[in-house]
């Protein structure tokens, strides 16, 4: 059956690849975006997940068109990299507000319908950095690590309602964000990855789609690394 799927931050990069994977499988896919022009082929809703009212309005629009959200992929996130001594309080709090508190908002709103239906799939997009750490990314790493505790708490809280919560932790992915790096920077990154290459966004999307499938019905509270081995042991 075609499900109602929401991918936050689904207008580019990993989020867009995830949205396409679900659409290709025949699901009804809605995406949220904050700026720019959204891609065609999806129900695109402009929404800043740091604003509770915008989140509520986005869900109302999605529910009117596609029905209650049955699969939520919380992907929207930002970075403001800086060494700790130079990091402003706004740099720290704004990243946590989007990546962690924003995820809280969209998950809480989705759970309203999932509880009524007594089923649901939630996948949070974290990062290898949340497990491994990264100099200059204390704010980002803290927000992404927080998603693990958040998901595992909800897996325990709502498992009896047949709602699963899992985390995907991508490594370095070949997106517009990484294309701006110099050849030297890219080579340095790849040298740390046992598989010796960047991930393709579609490889992240395939893992997400699996976790939202019936084949993964007994998986909850898991953290799945898709990082080429970069974060092994964490």
From TrEMBL:
Reaction catalyzed: a (3R)-hydroxyacyl-[ACP] + NADP(+) = a 3-oxoacyl-[ACP] + NADPH + H(+)
Domain of life: Bacteria
EC number: 1.1.1.100
Gene Ontology terms describing biological process: fatty acid biosynthetic process
Molecular function as annotated in GO: 3-oxoacyl-[acyl-carrier-protein] reductase (NADPH) activity; NAD binding
Biochemical pathway: Lipid metabolism; fatty acid biosynthesis
Pfam families: adh_short_C2 (PF13561)
InterPro entries hit by this protein: 3oxo_ACP_reduc, KR_dom, NAD(P)-bd_dom_sf, Sc_DH/Rdtase_CS, SDR_fam
Keywords from the UniProt entry: Fatty acid biosynthesis, Fatty acid metabolism, Lipid biosynthesis, Lipid metabolism, NADP, Oxidoreductase
Residue positions of the active site: 140
Binding site for NADP(+): 9-12, 75, 140-144
Family: Belongs to the short-chain dehydrogenases/reductases (SDR) family.
PANTHER family assigned to the protein according to its UniProt record, in alphabetical order: 3-OXOACYL-[ACYL-CARRIER-PROTEIN] REDUCTASE (PTHR42760:SF133), SHORT-CHAIN DEHYDROGENASES/REDUCTASES FAMILY MEMBER (PTHR42760)
Its job: Catalyzes the NADPH-dependent reduction of beta-ketoacyl-ACP substrates to beta-hydroxyacyl-ACP products, the first reductive step in the elongation cycle of fatty acid biosynthesis.
NCBIfam families hit by this protein: 3oxo_ACP_reduc, PRK12826.1-2
UniProt-recorded name of the protein: 3-oxoacyl-[acyl-carrier-protein] reductase
Organism (species): Streptomyces tendae
Upper taxonomic lineage: Bacteria, Bacillati, Actinomycetota, Actinomycetes, Kitasatosporales
């Amino acid at each position: 059956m075609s499900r109602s799927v929401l991918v936050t931050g689904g207008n580019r990069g990993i989020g867009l690849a995830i949205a396409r994977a679900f659409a290709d499988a025949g699901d009804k896919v809605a995406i949220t975006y904050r700026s720019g022009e959204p891609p065609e082929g999806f129900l695109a809703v402009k929404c800043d997940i740091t604003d509770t009212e915008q989140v509520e309005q986005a869900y109302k629009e999605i529910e009117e068109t596609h029905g209650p959200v049955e699969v939520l992929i919380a992907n929207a996130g930002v970075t403001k990299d800086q060494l700790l001594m130079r990091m402003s309080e706004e740099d720290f709090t704004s990243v946590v507000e989007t990546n962690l508190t924003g995820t809280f908002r969209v998950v809480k709103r989705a759970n309203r319908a999932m509880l009524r239906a007594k089923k649901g799939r939630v996948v949070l997009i974290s990062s290898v950095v949340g497990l491994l750490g990264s100099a200059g990314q204390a704010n980002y790493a803290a927000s992404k690590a927080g998603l693990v505790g958040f998901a595992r708490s909800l897996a325990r809280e709502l498992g009896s309602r047949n709602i699963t919560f899992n985390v995907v932790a991508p490594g370095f992915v070949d997106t517009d964000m990484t294309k701006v790096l110099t050849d030297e920077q890219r080579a340095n990154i790849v040298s740390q990855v046992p598989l010796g290459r960047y991930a393709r966004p579609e490889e992240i999307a395939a893992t997400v789609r699996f976790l939202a499938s019936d084949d993964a019905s007994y998986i909850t509270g898991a953290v799945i690394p898709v990082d080429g081995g970069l974060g092994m042991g964490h």
